[in-house]
Amino acid sequence: QVQLVESGGGLVQAGGSLRLSCAASGGTSAGIYYMAWFRQAPGKEREFVASINWDGDRTGYGDSVKDRFTISRENRRKTVYLQMRELKVEDTARYYCASGPSVTWTYWGQGTQVTVSS
């Protein structure tokens, strides 16, 4: 079983930056072959933010964050990052890390809150 723990959330002003981290433990490499970030704001459905494969040479982004957010990973540390720039009030949400041997996302973290103030 893979355990995922997110960190790095907090309160930031609009236009600012924040970097989220998600550290994995347990399980095998297959469990973190693909890693991703999702987010969910109150009263809204969960939204795909970004994903990355094991080698880091394939990434994907949701339309609302493309060109502002960057996903990366350090396999040695079993950690995935989400660098968020030019943050907007509408980026306020709880951000969740997910992983799996495929993009069906077998494992989920508890999330970290990001709040962007105007």
Structure description:
With 118 residues, the protein is mainly beta. The protein contains no helices and 11 strands. The protein has strands spanning 3-7, 10-13, 18-25, 34-40, 47-52, 59-61, 69-74, 79-84, 93-100, 107-108, 112-117. The strands form 2 sheets. Strands 2, 4, 5, 6, 9, 10 and 11 form a 7-stranded mixed β-sheet that branches. Strands 1-3-8-7 form a 4-stranded antiparallel β-sheet, with no helix packed on it. A hairpin with a 6-residue loop joins strand 4 (34-40) and strand 5 (47-52). The protein is globular, with a radius of gyration of 13 Å. The chain starts with a strand and ends with a strand.
Summary of the model, kept short:
This protein has strands at residues 3-7, 10-13, 18-25, 34-40, 47-52, 59-61, 69-74, 79-84, 93-100, 107-108, 112-117. It is mainly β and 118 residues long. The strands form two sheets. Strands 2, 4, 5, 6, 9, 10 and 11 form a seven-stranded mixed beta sheet that branches. Strands 1-3-8-7 form a four-stranded antiparallel beta sheet, with no helix packed on it.
What topology does this entry show?
Layout lengths: L2 E5 L2 E4 L4 E8 L8 E7 L6 E6 L6 E3 L7 E6 L4 E6 L8 E8 L6 E2 L3 E6 L1
Parallel strand pairs: 2-11
Antiparallel strand pairs: 1-3, 3-8, 4-5, 4-9, 5-6, 7-8, 9-10, 9-11
